[in-house]
Amino acid sequence: MSPRQLNHRGEAIKFDLVKRAGFRRGRRSRNLRYRKKRLNRAKPEGWLAPSIRHRVLTVETWIKRFMRYCPIAWIEIEQVRFDTQKLANPEIDGVEYQQGELQGYEVREYLLQKWGRKCAYCGTENVPLEVEHIQSKSKGGSSRIGNLTLACHVCNVKKGNLDVRDFLAKSPDILNQVLENSTKPLKDAAAVNSTRYAIVKMAKSICENVKCSSGARTKMNRVRQGLEKTHSLDAACVGESGASIRVLTDRPLLITCKGHGSRQSIRVNASGFPAVKNAKTVFTHIAAGDVVRFTIGKDRKKAQAGTYTARVKTPTPKGFEVLIDGARISLSTMSNVVFVHRSDGYGYEL
Q1: DSSP string, 225-280
Q2: What is the pLDDT of residues 53-64, one digit of tens each?
Q3: How far apart are CA 20 and CA 39, in angstroms?
Q4: What pTM did the predictor assign?
């Protein structure tokens, strides 16, 4: 298996949407003659927010790319990573759900993601963590997911059945963080739950044989094979085919969504009103995101003479800029420049 790790840009899309909504709200709340918000714009069935829909479209893009270059007999998808309703109330489906073969995997994986894979009380990482009741059961605490956290063995023993407020009386910042995080939902889990059916529906429209599995099955496959926790290895351990895998390299190809520039039709000023910018000439021979190999003939302040391969950062009126070890280097000619990869909206890194 040659692993790949895909990083989406859902957070960046959400940030842009929130910023745009703020501008629109501001324009309509200053007693100006702009149209009022219309209330007859109901969302159609199956609608997904743009930041969530982006994840589905990105997965679709890469499924089609893989199918273009190699035959794919079936697709296995981790459809349900966290069943938050059953985690909060395990009694929904009775005792068998709690004491089946996968018992404990769903809860532990949820807590590891929620608490950052470290002790909630001392912050220790890379040590065995134990499931801890924030309010001890002897003091009336329950086993609901909101009352559970992770603690190292030392802190777990030291706390015992003490009230968490007494145990962390000398550390008010940690206490506030624990109490706040205990009732804080895991937004990534909610995003996965929102897209699980959309991704499966999309995959079935591309490939006839689509199999679904849970996050608990994925973790069980990974733990039994002694593999470390990474996104790429988690993807390889999904479903039946993930029960026995052969890893060719431990360094996945990192693929990051970069987008194709801004799609904003009109620039705005700090108040949210249109701000017209004068048109600027652009170096049209190359685009941001292209990977090029070029030669620098003489030593520069931020780069020595030699041959480099780098990603184009910004086209300028007189050329373009590339990044070399974090420094911007300007080039003004296409001589000695060879295209390695044309921009496709993604960045690649080993």
Answers
A1: TT----HHHHHHT-TGGGGS---S-SSPEEEEE--SS---SS-B-TTSSB------
A2: 999 999 999 999
A3: 19
A4: 0.66
